[in-house]
Design goal:
Glycosyltransferase, 3 domains, 8 strands, Terpenoid_cyclase/PrenylTrfase
Length: 580
Amino acid sequence: MISLEDPAALCGAAAAVGVPLLVWAWNKHVRYWYYAAWPIAYPGDVVPNRLERRGRWEDKTSALPTGWKFSCARESHQRTEDRWAETGLKLTGEAAGRQSWHWCGTDAGDDASLGAADDAPTFNPSVNPNSGDKIFRAQQLRKWEGPRPDETETPKDALGAAKKGFAFHQMLQCDDGHWGGDYAGPMFLMPGLIVAFYVTGTPLGEERRAGMEAYLRNHQQADGGWGTHIECASTMFGTVLSYISLRLLGVSVEDGACARGLKFVRENGGGSMAPSWAKFWMAVLGVYEWEGINSVPAELWLLPRWFPFHPWRMWCHSRMVYLPMSYLYSTRFTHDAKSDSLCMALREELYLKPYDEVDWDANRHLCCPMDTYSELHPAMRLLQNVLAFYERWLCVGPLRWLRKRGAEFAMEYMRAEDEQTNSVCIGPVNKAFHVLISWVDGGKKASHEAFQRHLQRVDDYLWVAEDGVKMQGYNGSQNWDTSFAVQALAESELCEDFPVCASKGWRYLEATQIKFDERERDKYFRHISKGGWPFSTAAHGWPISDCTGEGLKAHRPSGAGAGLKALRLRLWLWLLVLLQ
């Protein structure tokens, strides 16, 4: 018999009766409303005056020290494996398309691809906040041994212009056939990696650290803040994360860049006004409390698949970010800030009142107006408040076993993602989370194999340009860019004029087609992969519908190659039909 004086038993009984009733109600009535209702996240009309704020940068010029060298494909693999020679760990997955940068030093001898100190490319954000990829292009042009286009010649027609364009473009082609380039821009990517390295005690290396610092300094705006993206006006999202990053990189609070950044943060309400993703990384670092984060329950992974808001129904990038977030939130992992003088200093710097006096629960819904693209829908606010009640009473009581099992499944799922992507991960956000979680899963030991494999793949996301060392929005856009270049060559009927360029491009595309499906793909919500093309590399392994279409279109039985075998064509067609 259930006693009225036993709250745990009452909650358990309520759950036992309530869940079946909810399922029945969904099947009988609610699902019709669900499909017809107004979406909770519907953005509505354009935010008033949202385009009036523009990014503004000081007129300043800087230059990154020379000494960085680009490597790709097999050479890139070899350089990484040489650095991990003592562990014996080899990189897995197809080498084609992999891009990495390594520091050779300013006195690297005869290596002409590095350039000289007096011709180091400069960067001025007030002229253009985007880099011109001058370091990469200069190195590719120096390596080119073939004929060069006549810069003084003016084409007389479109075909002549195309020929001259390809005569230059082939000089930028990488050895494995792809075209590389800067794929960065968002300012909220690299801070996650910096936090992960700091919490795990992993050295960044002086040159990498200095390059990251240079990048953050270069993109600080005249008002002291940083944008969510390098081109947009300052936001609290970009500013709080960039400020914390500079501090973790060793920059003093009294430094001019930090002083201006902190002034911007405090003038706009302090760290508690940052959006949810920033707050999440702050909680991991120990400079924000989990009570101030809206629930990210791992229990949702245990729902039946037919449930309308099971996480598997999310867009894959949202799902794969929700995954590590749900694990960290459910386990309440946090860095030991009280034993870390820098984190204790950040607790004092980021808030307008003493850290111990902050009402964290009251901050769950706070977001600075400049970061609010659309107001939080009342229904979403209500649901988040219900989940807050669940966090306080149910998941720490009668339903705590659900939380434990949900976190266990999330950990299993993350291990599968690591295996399926050769530790590259689907994107830079979950990559940074996986670096941290693989360390936690390994007992916080730096020697843990999964953690070391993640460290081997960090370079896949880092790019070096004249504005500094940055984290890209993917591990590159290799397949996407190469497929269009090869298509343009074929459409212009210039394959015979540039046979080596065409053949190399085709070979890259052939090597990048995904040739197998993932193990236990159904268990971990993966679509069929075999026959598709990714956005970047085969080692990344996630097929994409438009990349698959463009990859196939680039295969012409002409100077670009003999075309794919019939079996490979059937696999491509089958995948594309299933994705429709």
